[in-house]
Amino acid sequence: MERGMLAVVLEGWGDPEVLQIREVPRPRPGPHEVVVKVRASGVNRADLLQRRGKYPAPPGEPQDIPGLEFSGTVEEVGEEVSLWRVGDRVMGILGGGGYAQYVAVHERAAIRVPAGIPLEDAGAIPEAFLTAYDALFRQAALTEGETVLIHAVGSGVGTAALQLAQNAGARSIGTARAPWKLDRALELGLDVAVEGGEDWVQRVLNATGGEGVDVILDLVGGGYLAGNLKVMATGARQVVVGVPSGSRAELDLRWLMTRRALIRGTVLRGRPVEEKLALSREFEHRVVPLLAARKIRPVLHTALPAHQAAEAHRLLEDNRTFGKVVLLWD
Ligand SMILES: NC(=O)c1ccc[n+]([C@@H]2O[C@H](COP(=O)([O-])OP(=O)(O)OC[C@H]3O[C@@H](n4cnc5c(N)ncnc54)[C@H](OP(=O)(O)O)[C@@H]3O)[C@@H](O)[C@H]2O)c1
């Protein structure tokens, strides 16, 4: 007989109320997969777009269950699995289906949760830290002694990025529209806090002695592009990770030329599976030890029971969060 589980299902597209708990079939492990009993399902901006019908899950992923990340314990292993045993504590990213009591993932997609980090907190790690790690170091090649500007520094990705940058010996400047988020970011180790108002460009230039920044992690998009060009140091690299302020903006190519600057975009979800598996393995080797040593930490705004998924979406939609929101399963 088919075994069931609970999941937060999209009963249609629209406001948060379309998120409803339903019983659905429980996944079985393929030969190279583990089934994880989920403790925490991270909530992401992309889930809000998916809920509104504007960001469908990639083919092959559950279309009606949102959720891009999980933490939990291995419950079942496929016959070819060699990396994990039942009971291991793991976390990871998914193409969809994360708001559920159980998820099935390739064994190489599972990442060890270090001892001492509760599973509730670990649910706040994968999407934010993998995105920030990949963008800052693999794509923008941020190095020690450089300065990085992080827009929306109080976001899940922003709070991960500022810690990773600090740990790598880079100087961090962060923007947010809400002053309370800047205060929290300073407590977390941000070097310079800049309110994302009209004069943010001048403030960033003042903070860098007029030199500008080496790397820009842009989690906001179109509204900041004109300013970004003005605060780029020679050879600067900008990575566009999110566009909540809009995806269209005018680009003065002369600024780009004179600064010999680079602007690139990135997505995690739509990448080929092999690339995501390789990133997850690299992350376990490079970033998990920093988490284990408490050099960096997950930033959890709040953990809500899974049946409060609609409230979790409202918190993000209203920009009331600092760090991450996760949904908990018993
Ligand atoms: N490319 C990828 O693979 C990938 C992966 C993960 C996340 N993302 C994207 O990265 C961004 C951050 O994700 P997250 O989950 O960490 O977000 P989050 O925690 O929900 O925080 C997003 C923050 O962005 C700021 N913001 C929202 N709308 C804005 C606007 N119109 N103008 C300026 N600032 C605005 C708000 O901060 P203030 O109110 O303080 O300004 C908000 O708290 C999102 O855009 C997300 O879609 C992309």
Number of helices: 11
The total beta strand count reads 15
CATH superfamily of the largest domain, called what? Medium-chain alcohol dehydrogenases, catalytic domain
Percent of residues in beta strands? Answer: 25-35%
Mean pLDDT: 97
Biggest sheet statistics: 7 strands, mixed
CATH topology of the largest domain: Quinone Oxidoreductase, Chain A, domain 1
Instruction: Tell me, briefly, the overall form.
Output: globular
| Proportion of residues in helical segments | 25-40%
Cα gyration radius (Å): 20 Å
Query: Cofactors and ligands present?
Result: NADP nicotinamide-adenine-dinucleotide phosphate
Task: Characterize the structure shown.
With 330 residues, the chain is an alpha/beta fold. The protein has 2 domains: 4-125 and 269-328, Alpha-Beta Complex (Quinone Oxidoreductase, Chain A, domain 1), CATH 3.90.180.10; 128-265, NAD(P)-binding Rossmann-like Domain (Rossmann fold). The protein contains 11 helices and 15 strands. Strand 12 (232-240), helix 8 (253-259) and strand 13 form a beta-alpha-beta unit. Helix 3 crosses helix 4 (156-167). It is globular, with a radius of gyration of 20 Å. It binds NADP nicotinamide-adenine-dinucleotide phosphate. NADP nicotinamide-adenine-dinucleotide phosphate binds next to helix 1, helix 3 and helix 4.
